[in-house]
Design the sequence.
């Protein structure tokens, strides 16, 4: 596997910015500017935004190729310019393109909660990972790579985290096979380890990250090996979403028991910091909560007419967070067989 | 990363129960080594092989899949946009042949495209240990429009045949299609295009 971080293959982002600032690049810079501005006329829609970005990158590829600033440039130099361009526009468009729909936020939270439960009882043998391959120390490296993904904004850099994670697993498998005179088993061994590492890592916003890379990484780069490893992580995500007793090699009753005690453990740890005195809330803590709400939801006392456009955006973001949280809370209440309306009226009475 | 393979590129997906030796088969084909003793630094789950068929250079991207039953449901994620599937079973284990028939059914149900299939009856070096008749498997393969090849990753037999059969049929199919054999435009690369509109489930209506 090609090393994703080898210095020679690393595009220099500052070189790209530097070239774009030159007077000779003014025409390109204008196209980029007006492309970015064009987004403000439309509501965010990840799929549509994705096709627009892909079309623009293709268009810019020929523009750069024919541009005097890149006259006599090698394919690699042009490629680096395009990497710089992708990073530039996706950093600018990040807030509108990454995990913006409420559905994405809910899926992210669902996956993360599910993994939170699985983390508490899934062991390598549940995924049929043979003892000889179990190496928690090396896995930690892979776990760290996967967790890093969420901290990057450029699709390429997110993808590199996935590739590095997979490379760590592959190196481990190769070393074990060489030192033990053992036949390599390819995907039969690779995928279960990747799934286990995904569970260990619980990568923040996994679904949104995968979707973002699929939509916004240059299409000509989502091929071959890169496409294969991305597909494997998508596959891990699917496995986790659909996990059941059979897929973890256990009896139905055993699986349910594990899930139930994991749920209880999670609820205790979530509940304890907020209400140490139990359910009946005193008047004092009620007031405290109201103050807290004031600072967390800053537009509660604002007049609609006086909102500035950027505040509307902020408000919209907050609204999304509230909807996501409410949806999850309702779901949690249903799981606890508590009637929402009854609960609310009981809180009002006190 | 993602260096562009030259010529025409095809995606081949490997399907077979765990432990039927599908990985060894491909490593043998790609590196010409049986991994009793392994030296080359390779990874074993994604491999490419360049070959020339009737004067045309082609590249096979070979996608290995996890064969254990518990990962079966993930299959479509891998084979959905594949051009060809190599189905491998262990000639000494009839259960692994049943798995093959299960995958064939699924592949046939994919309305989107007519995928090229071949079946490898692997571990034929063990065949003398048991009395095995491949006649049923041969007629099954014929019935689904595939060929059956008896292979041994250990002895290195039958492997080139199965891959060149696949490559030939892929090329014929491509010749028959309207795309023809026009070489890819420079720098456009070869897209492994997902011809389904969207990998994600369609977004739910939000109004």
Sequence:
């Amino acid at each position: 596997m090609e090393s994703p971080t080898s210095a020679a293959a690393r595009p220099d982002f500052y070189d790209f910015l530097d070239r774009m600032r030159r007077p000779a690049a003014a025409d390109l810079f204008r196209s980029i500017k007006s492309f970015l501005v064009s987004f403000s006329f439309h509501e965010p829609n990840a799929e549509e935004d994705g096709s627009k970005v892909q079309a623009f990158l293709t268009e810019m590829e020929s523009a750069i190729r024919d541009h005097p600033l890149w006259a006599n440039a090698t394919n690699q130099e042009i490629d680096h310019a395009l990497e710089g361009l992708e990073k530039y526009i996706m950093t600018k468009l990040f807030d509108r393109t990454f995990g913006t729909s409420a559905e994405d936020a809910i899926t992210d939270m669902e996956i993360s909660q599910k993994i939170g439960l699985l983390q508490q009882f899934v062991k390598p043998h549940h995924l049929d990972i043979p003892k000889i391959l179990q190496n928690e120390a090396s896995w930690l490296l892979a776990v760290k790579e996967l967790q890093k993904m969420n901290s990057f904004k450029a699709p390429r850099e997110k993808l590199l985290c996935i590739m590095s994670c997979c490379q760590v697993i592959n190196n481990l498998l190769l070393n074990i096979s060489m030192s033990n005179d053992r036949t390599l088993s390819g995907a039969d061994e690779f995928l279960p380890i990747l799934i286990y590492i995904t569970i260990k890592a619980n990568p923040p916003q996994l679904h949104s990250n995968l979707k973002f890379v699929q939509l916004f990484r240059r299409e000509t780069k989502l091929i071959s090996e890169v496409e294969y490893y991305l597909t494997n992580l998508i596959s891990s995500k699917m496995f986790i979403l659909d996990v059941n007793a059979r897929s973890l090699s256990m009896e139905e009753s055993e699986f349910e028991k594990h899930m139930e005690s994991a749920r209880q453990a999670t609820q205790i740890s979530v509940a304890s910091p907020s209400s140490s005195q139990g359910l009946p809330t005193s008047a004092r803590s009620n007031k405290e909560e109201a103050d807290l709400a004031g600072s967390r939801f800053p537009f509660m006392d604002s007049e609609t007419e006086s909102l500035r456009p950027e505040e509307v955006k902020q408000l919209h973001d907050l609204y999304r967070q509230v909807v996501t949280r409410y949806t999850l809370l309702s779901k949690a209440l249903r799981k606890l067989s508590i009637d929402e309306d009854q609960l609310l009226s009981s809180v009002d009475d006190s | 990363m993602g260096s562009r393979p030259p010529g025409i590129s095809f995606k081949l997906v490997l399907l077979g129960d765990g432990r039927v030796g599908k990985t060894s088969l491909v490593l043998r084909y790609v590196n010409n080594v049986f991994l009793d003793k392994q030296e080359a630094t390779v990874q074993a789950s994604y491999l490419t092989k360049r070959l020339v068929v009737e004067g045309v250079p082609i590249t096979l991207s070979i996608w290995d899949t996890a064969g254990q039953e518990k990962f079966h449901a993930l299959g479509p994620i891998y084979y959905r946009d594949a051009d060809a599937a190599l189905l491998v079973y262990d000639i000494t284990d009839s259960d692994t042949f049943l798995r093959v028939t299960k995958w064939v059914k699924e592949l046939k149900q994919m309305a989107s495209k007519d995928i090229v299939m071949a079946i490898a009856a692997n571990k034929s070096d063990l065949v003398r240990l048991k009395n095995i008749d491949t006649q049923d498997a041969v007629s099954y393969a014929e019935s689904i429009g595939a060929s059956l090849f008896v292979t041994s990753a250990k002895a290195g037999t039958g492997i080139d045949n199965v891959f060149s059969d696949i490559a030939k049929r892929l090329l014929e199919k491509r010749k028959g299609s309207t795309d023809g054999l026009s070489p890819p435009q420079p720098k456009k690369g070869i897209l492994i295009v997902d011809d389904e509109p969207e990998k994600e489930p369609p977004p739910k209506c939000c109004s």
Summary: The first strand of chain B starts at residue 8 and ends at 16. The helical segments of chain B are 22-31, 75-79, 94-109, 135-143, 159-176.
